[in-house]
């Protein structure tokens, strides 16, 4: 897993071991904890943005799309709403959130030292 390659050094720096040696011989990258979190945050996609985009004849409004993409069997039957995610509740009370996390077996304490612990 990727988590096995990330560790905290004795001087508080985040060390990322690379899967393969780079052409210049680099085997690990060292980051300041805040810089590491910035780079992780940059990898998280924005909400409500499609991660897969189709171009050419597969694009949603392509003129030849009907010739390439198979049509659905029953156009009269709509897809079940069970596959669609809906907001059930929004919990803002920290005590309730903490209790749910404990029941589910997750950590509830916040890490120290710029969001990382040794």
Please provide a written account of the structure.
- With 118 residues, the protein is an alpha+beta fold.
- The chain has a domain of 69 residues.
- The chain is built from three helices and three strands; from the N terminus they run E-E-E-H-H-H.
- It has a three-stranded antiparallel β-sheet with strand order 1-2-3.
- It is flat, with a radius of gyration of 23 Å.
Characterize this entry briefly.
With 118 residues, the chain is of the alpha+beta class. 22% of the residues lie in helices and 9% in strands.
Write the layout of secondary structure elements.
Layout: E1 6-8, E2 14-17, E3 28-31, H1 33-43, H2 65-68, H3 94-104
């Amino acid at each position: 897993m990727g988590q096995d390659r990330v560790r905290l050094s004795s001087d508080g720096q985040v060390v990322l071991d690379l899967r393969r040696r780079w052409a210049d011989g680099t085997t690990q990258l060292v980051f300041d904890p805040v810089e590491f979190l910035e780079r992780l945050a940059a990898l998280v996609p924005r909400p409500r943005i499609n991660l897969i985009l189709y171009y050419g004849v597969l694009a949603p409004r392509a003129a030849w799309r009907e010739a390439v993409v198979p049509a659905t069997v029953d156009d009269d039957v709509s897809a079940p709403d069970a596959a669609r995610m809906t907001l059930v509740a929004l919990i803002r009370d920290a005590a309730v959130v903490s209790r749910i996390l404990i029941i589910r077996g997750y950590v509830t304490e916040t890490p120290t030292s710029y969001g990382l612990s040794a």
